[in-house]
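Title: Prediction job returns without error message
Component: structure pipeline
Severity: low
Priority: P3
Assignee: unassigned

Description:
Job completed but the reporter wants confirmation the result is attached to the right record. Sequence as submitted:
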Amino acid sequence: MLLEACAEVDHATREGCTALFGAASCGQAQAIRTLAEAGADVNLAARGVETPLMAAAAHGHVEAIRTLLEAGADANVVNVNGQTALEVAIRFRHAEASRVLAE
């Protein structure tokens, strides 16, 4: 509904989080798909630190990871610690997420 009302799809909260980042953090694959189709930047880092793909990887949300990759998320982006989404998934011991990101 907000997207239909021309809401800014990449609008960030004071903390720097976008709707796409929130959807990725919560594993909401359909919301990710909807936001990406509306033009959300799938590589926009929250707080300039972590991409939606990294957030999904940190929580082990496999379907969200797949959806972000299909939407063009770059798995090679590194965070301020020099880690990719794959390395984030490994750090948090999410084996299936790590497998998907390694493909």
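Comment from assignee: result matches the submitted record. The chain has a mean pLDDT of 92.
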